[in-house]
Every structure is written in structure tokens, then in C-alpha cells.
Specification:
The protein has a single domain (3-285), classed as Alpha-Beta Barrel (TIM Barrel), CATH 3.20.20.140. It is 39% helix and 12% strand. It has helices spanning 31-40, 56-65, 86-94, 108-113, 131-143, 154-164, 186-192, 216-226, 245-258, 263-278, 281-285, and strands spanning 14-18, 45-48, 70-72, 74-76, 99-101, 146-148, 172-175, 198-203, 231-234. Helix 3 packs parallel to helix 5 (131-143). It is globular and about 55 Å long.
Length: 287
């Protein structure tokens, strides 16, 4: 099958990691434009992420303004929402959050990587998971919500995943493990893949100049090492200087297909796995 005869990979695709306005960072689309573009591309759902505040309320409203696609939101536990704020998590879950991210730009690991002071960690002085982090895992598991590892260090991510085994086994999505600040060696990824509640989110933006131009071969090797059944393909796009999210997702799929991944493999990573993580309501609630 040549590239000119590829199926439409975006038909029914789900992107669990997209940025849009309103935001303090410049974004290519606002929420409505993002939803409309994704719908027009044939996608089933998107999940909007903000480093600063909840997107749950925005997603609820946009999904009712733009028929034909389901728009989900979540909450990133950065300083602007109080860090590991259990009350904020419970509120977001009650409002329908589909992903709770551990700290990203406020993470101590992120700050240390960029030679900045401060930051939020999830371990105490004895390298044990903080009670707040445990409660967040428990609450997310009860709600069927994804827990994204954000910009935690590999050590913190491992501790989080190990603790999740006794705290309801919430769905854990390891955030862009190829990117510099959150880099996980292949051996580490293989170890984490042994846990049945763990998936890996491999983002298109990691291959761009914004994130160090990670070679596609690095992502392809990681997929082969951990398995298609544990991989979610997302974009993390929305920046004006990168491709539009839907275009980036299509480029990603075509590159993976050209590298030897089958059409079925790609659909598992772009449709089945994200839908499994979101829950069975994705297509049912689309209008």
C-alpha cells in the first residue's frame, strides 16, 4: 500500500493531549476552532490541556457548541491550582475530568532540568509517596480517570506507578517519555510496561524543534519495546509554530506506517487505546 493509498488515519482518531486558547501561551486555535478542525478532520474526540488551570468546564461547554465531536478536559496540578490540591482534584472529577496530570512546569524535576529553583515533588524526605499523591491516585481510580505523569522524574513516575498497584490501579499514562526532562530509558519503560494499568503517551511535539527534535526512530524503538497495546499516540500540539494538531496527527500516523507499523497497529494507538483510557462514553456522547 503506497502513501497515496493510505486509509484516513484521522477517521475516529482521539488526541489526548492538545493545547488551545484561552491560555497565557500563544495558541494556534481557541477551543471552538480546535474542536471544529478536529471534527472536520473526522476525529472522534480531543482532550484539551492547560498548564495553568482546569479545562474541564471549557470542554463541557465546547462539546455542546460544536456538534459531531466529544471534547474532554482535565486538570494539571501546577502551582496555579495549588499543586497537589486534593480538593481541586475532587472538584474536577465531579465535573467530568478525564485526565489529572501530575505537575508539569511546576514539577521540581522540570525546574531542575531547566536550572530553576523550587518546584513540586511527590515524595517526602524518606522517598515515600506523599499522602496527597496517594489520595489523588485513589480518587482518580474510583472515577475511572486517567492519571498523567506530567513532568515528574523517572524515579517519581516509578514510585507513583508502584503505589497505584495498592490504590485501585488507576489508569496511568506516562507523559512523553522520550522528551529530555521526562526521559525514560528503554529498560525503565519495559519495567513499567509490566504493570497492567500503565500506558505510554508518545507525542508528536517531541520530534519538533520545541522539544529537542527527538528522532522518530527513538519513538519507534520504544513502541516496539513496550508494545502497541500499551502505546497512545498524541500530538501535544497547538503552538503557532508547529503544525495544526490534526495535521500533525496525520503526519505522525503516516510516518509510523512508512516505518513498518500496520494500519491496525496505528488504529490501536490512535483510536482503541485512547478510547479505552477515556471510557466507553466517547462515541456515545458525540453529537
Amino acid at each position: 500500500m503506497g502513501l497515496n493509498h493510505l486509509p484516513d488515519f484521522l477517521e475516529g482518531a482521539i488526541d489526548l493531549h492538545v493545547h488551545s486558547a484561552p491560555d497565557v501561551d500563544r495558541r494556534r486555535f481557541n477551543d471552538l476552532e480546535l474542536a471544529q478542525a478536529a471534527r472536520d478532520a473526522g476525529m472522534a474526540a480531543v482532550l484539551i490541556k492547560s498548564h495553568q488551570n482546569s479545562t474541564v468546564e471549557r470542554a463541557w461547554l465546547v462539546s455542546r457548541c460544536v456538534p459531531g465531536i466529544r471534547v474532554h478536559g482535565g486538570l494539571v496540578l501546577n502551582e496555579t491550582v495549588g499543586g497537589l490540591n486534593v480538593a481541586a482534584v475532587h472538584l474536577a472529577l465531579k465535573l467530568g475530568a478525564r485526565q489529572i496530570w501530575m505537575p508539569t512546569r511546576s514539577a521540581r524535576n522540570h525546574r531542575e532540568y531547566h536550572r530553576e529553583a523550587g518546584g513540586i515533588g511527590i515524595l517526602d524526605e524518606r522517598r515515600r509517596l506523599l499522602p496527597e499523591a496517594e489520595e489523588i491516585l485513589r480518587a482518580a481510580g474510583e472515577a475511572g480517570c486517567i492519571v498523567g505523569t506530567g513532568h515528574l522524574s523517572p524515579e517519581e513516575t516509578s514510585m507513583l506507578i508502584e503505589a497505584s498497584q495498592r490504590l485501585g490501579k488507576p489508569k496511568i499514562l506516562v507523559t512523553h517519555p522520550e522528551w529530555g526532562p521526562t526521559y525514560h530509558a528503554l529498560d525503565e519503560q519495559r519495567k513499567l510496561a509490566r504493570f497492567e494499568n500503565v500506558f505510554f503517551e508518545r507525542c508528536f511535539v517531541s520530534t519538533t524543534h520545541l522539544c529537542g527534535c527527538v528522532p522518530f526512530e527513538t519513538i519507534e524503538q520504544a513502541i516496539a519495546a513496550t508494545g502497541v497495546e500499551r502505546t497512545v499516540i498524541s500530538t501535544d500540539l497547538g503552538q503557532p509554530e508547529t503544525p495544526p494538531p490534526a495535521e500533525g496527527l496525520r503526519m505522525y500516523a503516516e510516518r509510523l506506517h512508512a516505518s513498518g507499523f500496520s494500519v491496525d497497529d496505528i488504529r490501536v494507538m490512535m483510536q482503541a487505546n485512547p478510547e479505552r483510557l477515556l471510557g466507553a462514553d466517547v462515541r456515545k456522547e458525540a453529537r
